[in-house]
Amino acid sequence: MKGIISSILMLLFSACGYSQESPLRIGTLYFNPPFEQIFQGKKYFGFDIDILFSVCLVMKRECELVPMRFDKLLVALNKNKIDAMIVGISLMPEDPKNYLFSYPYFKSEAVFLTLQSNHLETLNNKTVGMVKNTLFPMAKNYEIVLTGKDALPPLNKFEINFKFYNNLPELLTALDNHEIDALILDAGAANFWITQTGDKYEQIGPVVHVENGMAIMTTKANGELIQQINKALLTIANNNDLLEIYQKYWQLISPDERPSAYLVMQSQLEQ
Predict the structure, then answer these.
(1) CATH fold label, 9-106+212-251
(2) Domain Solute-binding protein family 3/N-terminal spans what residues (predicted)?
(3) Under CATH, what is the fold of the domain 109-211+256-269?
């Protein structure tokens, strides 16, 4: 694969001819297959890691991966302990105006996950868990609006209640302990947990459109950096590196064929 030397990468990316600038500190997650995964504390692999490595090669910058829990990443970014973050999650911080986002590198979709033992037939009036600052703005009540030929009037046909958690381990624990009826994740992460846990989890309901997609995020102070990242993303899109990464991971990151839908806050429907 052009521009990609391996799916297993060293913690510090380096190459001959890189600039003498200090390494970019890129925050990521310890464990979020198929997007990011650490091996023996030293090597990384995954969809996001391949994309980041390609971006760093184009920028001719060393990129130091700094792994941590999701809820710690925003704190680290705000305190300038990392320069940017890439997490394989569609980001939706509570205060998005304080941040800059790269061009989306993946048009993500979200799916609902539940325990097979729950025997759920509908999400209507159920409680769904979600990680804070991801996917959708934090609101207690959402409604599922089906699109296309699957659209069903009235719009409030499927009403769901949300609870928010700090990170994915907390979210999965809440589902396992029956604190919530289901959870919502980016499709790739949901696929991993379904396939790797036998008969424990299953997908329920429609595939949900996520407006913003996946992007690299930084603070407003790093405007020049985000411009460089955007330029590099355009380069790997035009030279087919990005397409090759898609093809490599597509079966892991794409959702099953299901009806499509949007999540809409009740307050928006009442306007």
Answers:
(1) D-Maltodextrin-Binding Protein; domain 2 (3.40.190)
(2) 23-253
(3) D-Maltodextrin-Binding Protein; domain 2 (3.40.190)
Among 268, 271, 265, 263, residue whose Cα is nearest residue 147: 263
Question: What distances in angstroms separate CA 202 from CA 161, 187, 194, 198, 255, one per listed residue?
Answer: 19, 12, 6, 10, 12
* Both structure tokens of 254: 């794409």
Domain positions in the chain? 9-106+212-251, 109-211+256-269
pLDDT in tens, the chain (271 residues): 433 333 333 334 443 334 447 899 999 998 888 898 887 667 888 999 999 999 999 999 999 999 998 889 999 999 999 999 999 888 888 888 899 999 999 988 899 999 999 999 888 889 999 999 888 877 878 777 777 655 554 444 568 889 999 999 999 999 999 999 999 999 888 888 998 888 899 999 888 888 888 999 999 999 999 999 999 999 999 999 999 999 998 887 776 677 777 777 755 555 4
Structure tokens at 164: 């928010």
Beta bridge partners of 44: 9, 38
> What are the start-end ranges of the H helices in 100-240?
168-176, 187-196, 223-238
143 is written with which tokens?
């409604």
H helices of the chain, where?
A: 47-59, 70-78, 168-176, 187-196, 223-238, 241-253, 266-269
User: Are residues 130 and 94 in contact, defined by beta-carbon separation less than 8 angstroms?
Assistant: no
